[in-house]
Design brief:
Beta Polymerase, domain 2, single chain, 17 helices, alpha+beta
Length: about 500
Amino acid sequence: MTEVDYLRLQTSELAAHTRELVAANGHVRMAYAWYPKPGQIEVRYLTSRRAREPFLMWTVTPDGVTVPSLASEFPRLGWYEREMADLFGLTFAGHPEPKRLVLLDGVEVPCPPMSPDFPPSQKLEVTEHGSGMPELEGPDVQRLPWGPVRADVVESVELRFFYVGEHILHLHPQLFFKHRGIEKRFEGQTPQFGAVLAERVSGVGSFAHALAFCQAVEAASGCVVPDRAKLMRVVLAEMERLYNHLHYLGHLAETTTLKVGAAEGKYLEERFKQLNSRLTGSRFLRSLLTPGGLRRDFEPGNWLGAELARLEQEIDAYTTRLESTNSYLDRVITTGKLDWKMAYDQGATGPVWRASGSQQDLRQDHPYAGYDGLPLKVPARKEGDAHARAEVRIDEIAASLSLIRDALRTLPHGEVKTPCAPPAGSEGIGWAESPRGSVFYAVHFDDHSLLKRVKVKSPSFSNWRVFPLTVHESNMMDYAINEASFGMTVAGCDR
């Protein structure tokens, strides 16, 4: 995997380094805080410039609890700073939107929830409180709060629309109704239990989250994963991508009222979940990963390749029909436009980012597992609309099938696990390109080699931030299509 370098900065140096990073079209991948010592907060910024170069971690120790906000220079940092303000009690001076994010209005806390003094078992007290949301005034402006309970089995989020007729002026999504405190739950746990917990951050991204976590632990310990385990990790990661993308296509078809297309996409998704179960015993590919490799070996044999070949023909026929259905195309083309600049500024990731002109993909730019030895095609589009986001995923399905074939063809014999014992006080960064985009984990260990701090950066945290900007000035009839085209999860954002 790509290395991570570290740079300690003074708070007064942050703005200049940020401007330099923006000028180079670099990225802040995530930001987080932690307590290296009791009563001492440290703020970290994981940055990158070019592919195949080491990540660079900026480390800042604030004087007190005030840190200069970087959100005006790098808008994508706005949510990270608000998250740290809510959970660590930090103040980001000059923040353009100094409102709560994770803690809902009315939540009372005796001390910051991520403080070592906050009891893990203590429940948050909630009192009646106004929404605190600014009103849009006008004789014809209507307000529609939708949620947090919505139709079907959709996750909890309240969507607050301001609109005139069918025209949406503004959308404010209120998430974090089911914030589960998972990062707090990691504290004091073993790396092995941490892998199980990472699988439960977002169920449909179980493997990608566990993989990023395990690779962070492996970076902290310096262990080398066996080659067979590396390639099997590729196979399983791409199997997760396949069933997710097929679900996505089925759901997008459903929002355009293409009922047969919806049923067929979800039927193909189910077929891949059954393959997962036959290969590993888990439809969602859980309980397979552990720091140091895999918990047990798998033998794909010839049957997996034969099944994938049959499914590939069915998928090709399905996507061809989808792409030749005018009623579907009429609804997705030009819907939810996201241009490159907005996607870059706000930190879009995954297929959403690649549909707006980027070709960034962690499998290619910062290879991990067995990806470095495999040919990888990274599909991209420039239109930035719902159709482009669907096209990227369709092309990624073909690319994933090709990757699995190449991995199986070169799969060596041998062990699938090596000892992995992180030294006391060590730390590491791990990442993976999930079906929805980049996943990052930062792990810190205490003096007993137990987890002291785990930071989870999930792709939906990034894409939920950028999504409302594609809704403003759109219309109500296209809203469901636009949201489906982003393919986000609430669990991945709320954590």
